[in-house]
Amino acid sequence: MSLPFREHPLRHTVTDELHARTFEPLRAPERVSYLAAVSGERGSGRNVEHLKRLLAHYGLPVPETVDQHYWIDLGPMRLRWERHTEFVTYTFSKRGAFEHPFADPLLDELPQDWLRDLPGEVITATSLAIEPCDRPERTNDELVALFDGNPVIGSEVVGGAGRAWSDHKIHADGYSWILLRDCGLSDNQAGRLAKRVLEINAYRGMALLGFPLARGVSGPLSDADRRLAMVALRLSSQGSSGQPAFENELLAELTSLAAEIEAVSARTTYRFDASRAYYQMIQQRLDQLRQNRIEGLQTLSEFLDARLAPAIATCESTQRRQHDLAERAARITSLLRARVDVSLQEQNRRLLESMDRRAQMQVRLQETVEGLSVIAIGYYGVGLIGYALKGLESGGFPIDAGLWMGIALPFVIGFAWFGLRRIKKRLNGSA
């Protein structure tokens, strides 16, 4: 339909984004298998091709393009595929009664070669079951036995309309287990609840990826901190400046330290920022569960906050430490450069003073030479005049050569002095 106004080119994109993370309505009894595979920001093409390969296996139409999410009924089960920034999720769901909530995961029904070739690396593999409220309710001991003897955490959710239990362990079959109990949930509520607890599980794994990295860089950062303190101590203990070898050595060490700190920061900054963002999403999803305590059990929020909060705090502390070390290295480098600049200025000042003294000496020598030149010119000038006068005297002219040489002496010297001054002034003017 042609509109009477001009649309923004991103109007449909930003509107579709509101529906990019929708849920699938679920109804107990239901089983769900969930995979989150980390494939990086550039792995979208491989993931789409892998999705199309599964559709072709079941003889289903293969779409030309796939956006951020895709839903289809495979026949034996339903699939919801979602693409996130760093990972891709596959949610397989199947309605029907079951004896054991976690026996025979739905992924066992998929082509095993397709699972083996899954792009990326799986960070979360979860089996979830929704049981109806008419099934006998389990005691806490029965729940512990169901989860292979592990301590169980759980809460009433959706204001008491459902219950959720898990142990957040990876079991012998390779999956984490989550059990939901429908005590009055609508299909939409059950779908939203399952999506939220599965996302919490995936985001938990992604958030904790930064924690081993934080522990891994702790040693290099401690070493950089120690070396930086030693450089500062050497700089402060060496009171006088003007030692180029010492200052060049410190500057080289500081440059190396700054490069090492920057390399660690470049390797960890994105991961730490992502961990903080995932942690915020976990807190948001936990708030949306609207939990109430089940007597004798730790709630989902209490369990996750007790484990995640220290890990995220460690990541944030490590990131702040990197930033502080980089700033300290920059400050010490600035101090050293200022010290080198002061030393260079002092050397330049001494050089200028030396040049000034040499110039003054040259002026004095020049003035001395000028005086001697006047005397020499006067001497030779008077001598030449004397030769002329003596020649005239010998030729019979009635003159006294000695007298006239004495009279000519001041005139010759004055003329020589005046001539040299004129030449000097002309040379200075042309310069």
Task: Set down the secondary structure blueprint.
Layout: H1 11-17, E1 30-38, H2 44-57, E2 69-73, E3 78-83, E4 87-95, H3 112-116, E5 121-132, H4 140-146, E6 153-157, E7 162-166, E8 176-182, H5 187-207, H6 210-237, H7 244-288, E9 292-293, H8 300-394, H9 401-430
Parallel strand pairs: 5-8
Antiparallel strand pairs: 1-4, 1-5, 2-3, 3-4, 6-7, 6-9, 7-8
Helix pairs in contact: 5-7, 6-7, 6-8, 7-8, 8-9
Task: Describe the protein in words.
This protein has helices at residues 11-17, 44-57, 112-116, 140-146, 187-207, 210-237, 244-288, 300-394, 401-430; strands at 30-38, 69-73, 78-83, 87-95, 121-132, 153-157, 162-166, 176-182, 292-293. A hairpin with a 4-residue loop joins strand 6 and strand 7. It is an alpha+beta fold and 431 residues long. The model has no long low-confidence stretch (mean pLDDT 87). The longest helix is centred in the last third of the chain and has 95 residues, at 300-394. It has 3 domains: 17-206, no CATH class; 210-351; 363-430. A 9-stranded mixed β-sheet has the order 2-3-4-1-5-8-7-6-9, sandwiched between helices.
